Amino acid sequence: MLLDALLLQLGYNATLVALGAASLGVAAGATGTFLFLRKRSLVSDAISHATLPGIGLAFIVMVALGGDGRWLPGLLAGSALSALAGLVCVNWLTRNTRLAEDAAIGAVLSVFFGAGIVILTIIQTLSSGRQAGLESFLLGSTAGMLFSDALTLAIGGALVLALALVLRRPMIQVAFDPGFAETTGISVSRTDFLTMTLVMAITVVGLKIVGLIMIVALLIIPAVTARFWSNRAEHVVALAGLFGGLAGYVGAAISATAPALPTGPIIVLIGFALFAASLLVAPGRGVLAAAWRYRRFQQRLHLRQGLISLAQGQPVYERLTRRLLRREGYLRADNVITDEGRARAATVLRDEARWQAVRRSDSLALLAQQDDGMTDIASVLTSDQLAEIDARIGGPKAVTP
Amino acid sequence: MIGAEFVALSLPPLLIGTFAAIACALPGNFLVLRRQALIGDAISHVVLPGIVVAFLVTGRIGTWPMMLGAAGAALISVALIELIRRLGRVDAGAAMGVTFTAMFAGGVLLLEQSDTSSVHLDVQHALYGNLESLIWLEAAGWKSLLDPVALAALPPELTRIAITLVAVIAFIRLLWRPLKISTFDEGFARAQGIPATLLGLALVVTAAAAAVAAFDAVGSIIVIAMFICPPAAARLMTQRLEAQIWWSVAFATLSAVLGYVLAGYGPLWLGGQNSVSAAGMIATVSGMILAAAALFAPHRKAS
């Protein structure tokens, strides 16, 4: 069943939804990355909640003009306008009052959302027969999605994605170093506004599928996930698009397999699963990789301290150190040093003497700052310098326990 | 308007709305100053999965299971945000966004999966509450306020939010000095021997308790609005924390009363027949107050 869904064999509507959700996911993931790198992820929360009054007002206006209140492009245009108003409010409050951005975001999202709910209740009383459907923008709904809806999604997503790719250079520059970007002639405020406009466009396009509360997840989660896998901004953008598309596609497919699996939440949860997996296993920034690095560091440090002790004829009692020394073959089972251990200890001791010589030397003392107990001296000094030091302090001395 | 009908139909929701607004605005003052305003946003989103899980575990809509479930979800979300921030080296805003959207999605999914058709539990209710339906049918007029039999039939939400409000006031009153010091200068607070981390956590727990109790009666939208709008407007009115607290209480009360009245009677004045969502209107009024403060308040600019 799931395989059928993933291979788009579950009928026309399921196929439309899966493809629409995938294109939305790609566009949202890539666009959200710029927001995330700018450390303003939660502005999207304000933008998405601010769409609600626009949807309601657009409905009222369209009904008043004698049209069908549920015409999708009209509703989306209304939501875009009110999202823009919300965005302007956040910016104005942050810039012109002493309030911090988080307070501005929270104020705008709650007030716009509250006003939207007031308008929805007005609509319920205006035309009781025709109000159905507007609530679906809260949590999204994909039942009865039309071909034209899917087309709107695909074209809108592609358009935003293309714009994001065109504008990626200034947006990345502003995200990493706004001061420097300003000196190179990029207007920070205009670039920020462009980023937000793209986010707003994605929000409006995605309202129909995942709803305004969870569209935020599609903007934030793929970007955070992708950040675990790369340190290069362009790669993060591409990966975020990939993760977002994957979450959209797989989520829509899974939700098509059973009636009680709403599309929006499933997409968000798939995205979260990708995030959790990346948090654990990603190389470099992942938790497991960090734990492994820590363990390696601990082992090298213990081994070195153990060898220095052995070289100076002191017994080693610490159990982890003994185990490590035995595993490397430097100690026998009865804790007597082996020949190999003696040779290694002599090397470590000589390196220690070399570092001391470097520290005393006038010309090389600065280099000695790199001695953290773990760095190989041969990677800091040239072989000529080493030879000169060795000539001064003599070669390795035999270790006698 | 001021008669038996008012006491029965409007007084309880008015009081519940006002108490809820103040209970959220009080901790909101500190959250806004500490730049943690969006914690309230996150908490109010994760209350939904907490309540759904509590319902699935106990199989019924009870007060205490719901409160405990919601409080548990709030604590889990705060822990998760901190975990993601530390382990993943992600900025706080993004960590928050990841956590609360995922937990909210989980809540919606659980709700769809479980059979909740027999009970009153749905997303719309969670978002805008049912302030208008909290009426006191036994009241026969003002004298009912002194009648123990009628008082026993007061909506239970009123008692709950009143107790929560007292607890919130007690928390802030008792820990006033350490709270104030650690909010403005955490390093100095630590040097004075104040456990700043613990105090910060206690503040978040208090905010969560206020959010959960208010959420039960008025829905999450008021909760977020009251955490942020009255304290933010009060912040623009004064430079002193004491005065700011009083301003925020005044703004919260004004929003609740004016919002309720406008929602209930506004449409009638304009010639309509039905009232609009009181929760939405209260949030809107608080936004108007903030807008007015941002335009005209004496301390609106950073000095």
Report on this structure.
The complex is a heterodimer of chains A (401) and B (303). Chain A has 17 helices and no strands. The longest helix of chain A is centred in the middle third of the chain and has 40 residues. Chain A is elongated and about 100 Å long. Chain A starts with a helix and ends in an 8-residue tail after the last helix. Chain B has one domain: ABC transporter involved in vitamin B12 uptake, BtuC (Orthogonal Bundle). Chain B contains 13 helices and no strands. At the A-B interface, helix 5, helix 6, helix 11 and helix 13 of A face helix 2, helix 3, helix 4, helix 5 and helix 11 of B.
Mean pLDDT of chain B: 85
Output the structural class of chain A.
mainly alpha
Largest sheet of chain B: none
Assign the CATH superfamily of chain B: ABC transporter involved in vitamin B12 uptake, BtuC
Order of helices and strands of chain B: HHHHHHHHHHHHH
Task: Outline the biggest β-sheet of chain A.
Answer: none
What top-tier CATH class of chain B fits best?
Mainly Alpha
CATH class of the largest domain in chain A: Mainly Alpha
| SSE order of chain A, one letter for each helix or strand | HHHHHHHHHHHHHHHHH
Domain module tally of chain B: 1
Strand segment count of chain A: 0
Low-confidence sequence ranges of chain A: none
Low-confidence stretches of chain B: none
What fraction strand of chain A? under 5%
Number of domains of chain A: 2
Specify the oligomeric state.
Answer: heterodimer
